[in-house]
Amino acid sequence: MSLAGSFLTFSPASKEPRLTLSVQGLPVSFLIDTGATFSLLNHAPSPWLSSEVKTATGVEGNPQSLELTLPLNVVYADKCFPHRFLFSPACPIPLMGRYLLCKLEATLTCTPEGVGLLMTVLGDSAPTQGNWETPLSLSPDLTDLPSTLWGISDTDVGLLLSAEPVRIQVKPSLTPPSVPQYPLSLEAREGIRPIIEGFIAQKLVRPQRTPCNTPILPVKKPPKKDGDPVRWRFVQDLRVVNQYVVPLHAVVPDPATIISQIPWDAEWFTVIDLKSAFFSIPVHPDSQYLFGFTWEGQSYVWQRLPQGYRDSPTIFSQCLGHDLEGFTSPQGSTLVLYVDDILLGNREEAALRIDGKALLLYLHTRGHKVDPKKIQWTAAGKPIQHLPLIHKLLDAL
């Protein structure tokens, strides 16, 4: 993937240097302030705030005690990282200070024509002069959809309106399972630190002492191409928990039946991948103790369905199926569901575009998030068996 840059000049007489980032999935327009060390938010819901206070000096030289946020998930183009902000509701506008500019690897240039900002991002996600504040690369059809539809990071997840908090039944007369955390290398700890900080900031996990503990297993993901950054995946070994709980009766979808539902004359397809789908379903407080893990000496439990729990796919499929019962394709496209993937098929491209947007809007109203990087929007010109979803189904036969 090649490197590309974005450069924009500002008129000092009429425009201020601004940059819009996604903070916890919400767009925030920052005024760039190189005189400030820390970045500042003037609006922050209480779950974002920590109990810490930091002293900052204002423009008049007066010290102020300002609240500090938890690590919040910040996204711009290909960059995604946690960052802590000062919170001041009295400030008229969010400010971007030097620490955040350094994390973004931004370059500022002052000329007689104005202030230029150079951002270096990867490949196709590089913004241009016309869309430099947009962190997503979407089909033009989709740019008018709500920005909160898109899950732009691993911890930017939905919350299903139809999902009741899941209570989990355990087998009687068994001791709660507890497997100690084994030592992790420094590289592994630093690799998953942003992920766990994102879990904490999004309230997916919370601190709690629990009799159950299972180890976490950081997995390094090899770069897809030379020069790509190394990424890590959070894995929790829940096998002993899966043996401790009473399993649900899982209705396993038959791949052959699913494939047979796709009309033979359909030539246009859209595939929607729901973002971090299991995390969109809450776990009842009485059952959260089952999913304990230890991070830097602190015990945490999951407040959402974790990956690796045996019944997470079954529970999510039931919730999604229930949600989709309320959707009707305006142009009659066929809808096929497989776990957290949804396929729409139609003979006509225009009809599929209408139905695809209608489905995305409907999913948004139900609390789902869609992965913008994996959506296959009105794909045509290749056999259906080349679609990744069909690969999944054929592999399951």
UniProtKB/TrEMBL annotation:
It comes from the Eukaryota. The keyword Hydrolase applies. Pfam families: RVP (PF00077), RVT_1 (PF00078). GO terms for molecular function: aspartic-type endopeptidase activity; RNA-DNA hybrid ribonuclease activity. Belongs to the beta type-B retroviral polymerase family. HERV class-II K(HML-2) pol subfamily. The lineage of its organism: Eukaryota, Metazoa, Chordata, Craniata, Vertebrata. Residues 28-100 form the Peptidase A2 domain. GO terms for biological process: proteolysis. It is an enzyme of class 3 (hydrolase). Residues 203-397 form the Reverse transcriptase domain. This is ribonuclease H. Its EC number is 3.1.26.4. Keywords: Hydrolase. The keyword Hydrolase applies. InterPro entries: Aspartic_peptidase_AS (IPR001969), DNA/RNA_pol_sf (IPR043502), Peptidase_A2_cat (IPR001995), Peptidase_aspartic_dom_sf (IPR021109), Retropepsins (IPR018061), Rev_trsase/Diguanyl_cyclase (IPR043128), RT_dom (IPR000477), Viral_Replic_Matur_Polypro (IPR051320).
